[in-house]
Automatic annotation (TrEMBL), chains A, B:
Keywords: DNA-binding, Transcription, Transcription regulation
DNA-binding region: 35-54
Source organism of this protein record: Mucilaginibacter corticis
Gene Ontology MF terms: DNA binding
InterPro entries found in the cross-reference section: Homeodomain-like_sf (IPR009057), HTH-type_Tx_Regulator (IPR050624), HTH_TetR (IPR001647), MT1864/Rv1816-like_C (IPR025996), Tet_transcr_reg_TetR-rel_C_sf (IPR036271)
A Pfam family matched in the record: TetR_C_33
Protein's name in the database: TetR/AcrR family transcriptional regulator
Domain HTH tetR-type residues, every copy: 12-72
Length: 199, 199
DNA sequence: TGTATCGTTTAACAGTGTTAAATAATTTTA
DNA sequence: TAAAATTATTTAACACTGTTAAACGATACA
């Protein structure tokens, strides 16, 4: 009976619609705006129907992160294919990674646990700039006798901060590295950047 | 009347108790476990009382992030004071930053928007390892003819990933940098690491 | 002692994820 | 075609969330 196939096809379609609706809601109002009832509204059903397709809300998020990793991998492969030299390939791949993060911001957020809401408020705190100011001063001193421009110091600071915050984030959400590996990455990164600052 | 003072002191104390209770709950069960009613339970009151001290839940989070930035700044200053050379100071400060992140994990999370829950599940996805595998291969090729050990490649990979994921995260939650600054940081970081890999 | 103020709680509202039961629609069987 | 069985969908409910308004209790002031 071909009607079975048709029904299966429809089921697969609503399964897909649920994901699309979810992503649409998130893109419009952020991850906090995503609720089962809103998804149901979007696909013109009521909430419990969703549980016929996904066991719970977490399963929807999981499927979205899966899609995210697949899409990212595709982008990386495409970037690689455009070059022959490994150095060029690597550079292109990381730039593709960068582009993906902002083109598919919501996916990147759920893939790697980057919150945005909680830091909306931190921006209002004057205290949030204190750590930067403290480190900024030392970078300026380190560059002496050369007097660095704001732009120059800024780049140094963010290079530092990125590698350290990145390593911290990765370890917090992933807990994959050994302490030795972390210390190694940290040390090589820090001393490398310091050396590049000093000349 | 000194009783006014006593009452003010008590008020200040419960204001503080609310923060302590919140942090305790979060440390025990993560940020998802934090609710107004649980805080009330902890300080042996009912929920609406909390609104006499903080206008809403967000105000509590904001106060915790403020405490976090203050504590981090203190740690950075202490680290700086232990050395005289700017290079040594800088190294010590970033190591203090690192230590703070894990010693006060919950504070760091709310300060910089690092989620942990959503990536519990991503670990189960085989797809989550695809991007690493793709880039891993190119790093190995780039190191040829030297055949890198697993540990060596791992450190290179995480150095790359850290700086890029860090820069992405910072931009997502902060949106502070100009595109030119970002591109500059990205490019210098990438080419720098690539050069260090090639010899 | 009566009144006003303050501290605190109870009750409620709108929202969340999720489940069980009731209903509507469809398909299968007689 | 009519009845039965199965499937699709919804309604109602539960326990929870943040938050507010009203009621209650105690305390201080006249």
């Amino acid at each position: 009976m071909a009607s079975k196939d048709r029904i299966l096809r429809l089921k697969e379609e609503t399964r897909c619609n649920i994901l699309d609706a979810s992503l649409k809601i998130v893109k419009e109002g952020g991850w906090d705006a995503l609720s089962m009832r809103k998804i149901a509204d979007e696909i013109e059903y009521t909430a419990p129907i969703i549980y016929e397709y996904y066991s719970n809300k977490g399963a929807i998020l999981l499927e979205l992160t899966r899609k995210g990793f697949l899409l990212l991998s595709k982008k990386l492969e495409e970037a690689k294919a455009k070059h022959r030299l490994p150095a060029k390939q690597l550079e292109a791949m990381w730039l593709a990674y960068w582009d993906f993060a902002f083109a598919e911001k919501e996916l990147y957020q759920v893939m790697y646990g980057v919150e945005t809401t909680c830091c909306e408020m931190a921006k209002k705190l004057p205290e949030s700039e204190m750590p930067m100011d403290l480190i900024w001063d030392v970078i300026v001193e380190l560059m002496l006798p050369h007097v660095g421009t704001e732009e120059e110091v800024c780049i140094k600071y963010y290079t530092f901060w990125s590698v350290i915050h990145g390593l911290i984030s990765i370890n917090m959400v992933n807990r994959g590295n050994t302490d030795e590996t972390n210390q190694e990455v940290l040390k090589t990164a820090i001393t490398g950047i310091i050396r590049s600052i000093k000349g």
